[in-house]
Predict the structure.
Amino acid sequence: MEKKRESLSTKSLSLKILIGLGLGVLAGLFLGEYAGHLALVGDAFIGLLQMTVLPYIILTLIVNIGRLSLDEGKKMVTNAIVILIILLSFGFLTVLVFSLALPEWSSGNFFNSSLIEEASPLDIIKIYIPSNPFQSMADNMVPAVVLFSILVGIAFIRVKDKESILHNMDILAKALNQVNKMVIKITPLGVFAIAASTTGTISLDEISKLQAYILIYTAIVLILTFWVLPSFIMATTPVKYREIFRATRGTLLTIFATGKIIVVLPQLIDDIKSIIEKHGDLDDDTKSATNVLMPLAYPFPNLGSLTIFIFVIFSGWYIGKELTIDQYPLFVGSGLLSSFINPITGIPFMLNLLDLPDDMLMLFQVSTVYTDRIRVVLGAMHLIALTLISVYASTKTLKINYKKFIRYNIFTVFLFIGSIWGIRTILSASLEGSYKMDKVVMEMTGIFPDVPMEIITEKPNPVKLIRSQTKLSRIKKRGKIRIASYNSNMPFSYKNSFGQRVGYDIEMAHHLAKALNVELELFLMDDLYKHIGKDYFDIFMGVPLSTKIAEQFSVSEPFMDLTMALLTKDSRDDFRKFKSLLNLDTFTVAYLERKEFADKFQNYFPKAGVVQLDSIMQFFNNSDTINIRDSLTIDALIVSAEGGATYTMLYPNYQLVNPFPYNISVPRVFLFDKPDPEFREFVNNFIKIQQKDGTLENLYDYWILGKDININKKNWSIIRDVFHWVD
C-alpha cells in the first residue's frame, strides 16, 4: 500500500512539473523580457536544492566506503571503471560519427579580442586537490570534495570501533536527504520560474546561428538517452525499459528544468534503489553499492559532458576551418581530460588547443540556455546506466543477453545512419544560400550626427591660409572642415550597398564636424604621402602611428589600438603559429603603403619576402594566389586584426591569424596636414570627451565588434506584439 502511494505521489509530482514547465513557457511567450524577473525565483529554487548536496555527498561516500572491506571496494571500483571506459568510448565514437552530419560551409566573423588575448590557465590543482576541504566546498569544487571524501572513507576501512560514528553520520545523511525531498515538493514552482525567464529572454536570432550544432547535439542526446543507454541496461540486467523511466521521469524532468544533476543526486539514488527493489535484489550490499557508486561516479566524465565537445568540431566547421585528421587524436585525448570540468571552462581550453577562435565561446554560451538542460539529462541517464550495471556486476547477478545485445546494436547502427543522413540533408537545404555576413557588412549604416556632408574631388582647399591664421580659425570662418580618409579601408571607410559612405572614420568625422558646428567636406584618397602637407585636408581621420609618422608629422593623442595580424587562405595552417611560420623556407607577404610595418614583420620572420600592393583588392583578385610582377606569389597580407576581420566576412575562404610570439599593438591617431597647436589641442580635447561620453566605445562596438548598439531589440511577446499593451 505504501509503495502504491509513493508511486502515485511520483506520478503526481511528474505531472505537476510538466504543467509548471508548460505554463512557464506560455508565461515567457506572453510576457517576453518582462518574464526575466522570474529568474530570481528560479535561482532561489536552485540554491535551495543545492544547499544540502555537497554535505550529503561527503557523508554518503565516507559512510558507505568506510563500511566496505578492501576487497569489496576494489571489485566495485574495478567494475565501474570498466563500464565507464566502455560508455565513454562509445561517446567518442558517437561524436566522431555524428560530425559527418555537417555539410560543406564557409564563414567569416567580426573581430574579437580573443584573437589577441591569452587563454587563462586552468587551475587543475584547485579543481582536483582539496588542499583546503572547506574552501573546496565553498567554491563548489566537486572533484576535490569527492577525493577528500574517498580518502576519508578508505581511512575508515582500516579503523576499528568505527560503527558508532558511521551510524551517526548515516543518520545525518538521511536527515539531509529529507531536507532535499522537502525542497523537491516546490519543484513545479521553480520549474515554472526557470522556464518563463528562459523563454522570455532567449534570442531566437542567436539560436538560429547554432542550428547545426543544436540539431546534431539534440539528436545525440535523444538517441543515447532514450535508446542506447536503456538498451545497454536491458541487455545486461533484468531491468525493463518502462521501469527505468517510470522510476526516474520526475527526477529527469527536474534535472532538465534546473540544468543541474547535483541538486537531485539524492533523489536519483533513491530512484535507482526503487528500480532494483522491484526485482527483489535490494539487500544491504546493494544499498551500500548504490549509495557509493552514484556520488563516486558524479565527478567523472559522463556522456553528456563528453558529447558536448562536438561543439569544437562544429566551431571548426562554422568558421570554415575543419579539424584535420592529425588533430583528432589531440581532440579525443584533450576532450577526455576536459570533460572532467565544466564545459564553460573546457570548451575555451579546447578551442585554444586546436587553434580555433575563442569568440566561438560566445555562441556556445548562448546555446547553453538549451543544451545545458539536455546535456544534464544525458548525464543523469549515464549515471543511472553506470550505477545499475555496476551494482549488478558487483553482486554477481550481471548476465549479458547476447541476442538482445546484437539486436539492439543492429538497430543502433541503422538509427545512427538514418539520423546522420537526415540531419545532413536538412542542413544542406537550410544552409544553401544562407551565408549573410557579407551582406551584414555591406548594409551597415550607423547613426550619424545630422551634419551636411559633401565628398570633394582631388583639389586643395580653395580658401588659402592667411599669414598667422590657424587651421581652426579658417575652419570656423569657412563653416566647413575638410577631413581626409582612405577611399577603401574597411571597416573604417567604405561605400555600403546603399551607395552611402560609411565606417568608423566616417562616423567619427561627422562627430568632429558637429563638435565644431560646421559642415563636412570629405576628401577620399588612396595615397596619404602624395597629399599631406599640400593643404588638401585639415585632418586625416586615422593612421597607425609609427616613429616615422611621429617624427615627420603632427598627430593627435591615440584614440584606439590596432594589433598586427595576417590575412591568408583558410588552408594555410602553417601561418597560424609562430614556430610553423618561422620554419617555412620561403614565403611572401604584402603590405599597403606603410613599409615600416613590413620591416617589423621581417624582424620576426627574416625568411619572408615583402612586396607592396596598390590596393587590398589586388590580394583578393585571384582565388588561389596573387600574381604580380615576375609571377610572384603572395601568401599573406599584413593588416590590423581589427580591420582585417571584416574582410574575412566578405571573403569567407580567408582567415585572420596572429602568428607573432606576442601581440604587436600600434596606436591609431589623427594626422594633421600641418602643425597647428591650437587645432591639435582642440582635437585632443575632442577625443577625451568622446571617450568619456561613450561615443568611442559605441563606435568600436558597432564597426569593429559588430554589435548593434543602436537598436534595443526586444523579443517577440504576446503582451507587446499581439495585445500592444506595452511598447
Remarks:
- Confidence is low (pLDDT under 50) at residues 1-8, 623-627.
- Residues 360-394 form the longest helix (35 residues).
- The radius of gyration is 32 Å.
